[in-house]
Amino acid sequence: MKPLVSIIMGSTSDLPVMEKACKWLEEQEIPFEMNALSAHRTPDAVEQFAKGAKARGVKVIIAAAGMAAALPGVIAASTPLPVIGVPIKGMLDGLDAMLSIIQMPPGIPVATVGVNGAQNAAILAAEMIALGDEAIAAKVDAWKASLGKKIEKANKDLAEIKDYKFKC
Ligand SMILES: Nc1c(C(=O)O)ncn1[C@@H]1O[C@H](COP(=O)(O)O)[C@@H](O)[C@H]1O
């Protein structure tokens, strides 16, 4: 199946974080592709990718980068598709990447998730696609319902801990 989500990372050193996005999309059976491209190191390839993504059927791009994270913004500049940026934690705890990604000049937005927020990026991508795709909307709904069930069970378990004292 043609990929609906394209995951781009600045380096394969970002892969341990971005695997969480892949895992979530795989579990939901949402087709995706993944590539390492760098606005700093392979600028021509990034431009070519960004300009061609929509015509290949991609609906949302997830772009992850650490340090001086130009990649998501550079991709956003060359595509009409929504771009979700994932700041990767590095030497400055990811604050450098987060600010690089979130502080886009007016007109070229990047929807930025939290530092290392790969799974949230995948969920947000699915929610965007779900606006025009009932099957994916049903998957997102089911996922959110399962989260609710988990916390309901955790709350029940908490009530059953006999010596639990509310300390706040
Ligand atoms: N921020 C960028 C860009 C870019 O924005 O084009 N290209 C690579 N990087 C980041 O550099 C970090 C170190 O990369 P290496 O581990 O390859 O040296 C990675 O987190 C990557 O995302």
TrEMBL record:
It catalyses: 5-carboxyamino-1-(5-phospho-D-ribosyl)imidazole + H(+) = 5-amino-1-(5-phospho-D-ribosyl)imidazole-4-carboxylate. Residues 3-151 form the PurE domain. One of its GO terms (molecular function) is 5-(carboxyamino)imidazole ribonucleotide mutase activity. The keyword Electron transport does not apply. Substrate binds at S11, D14, R41. Keywords: Isomerase, Lyase, Purine biosynthesis. Catalyzes the conversion of N5-carboxyaminoimidazole ribonucleotide (N5-CAIR) to 4-carboxy-5-aminoimidazole ribonucleotide (CAIR). This is N5-carboxyaminoimidazole ribonucleotide mutase. It comes from Hallella faecis.
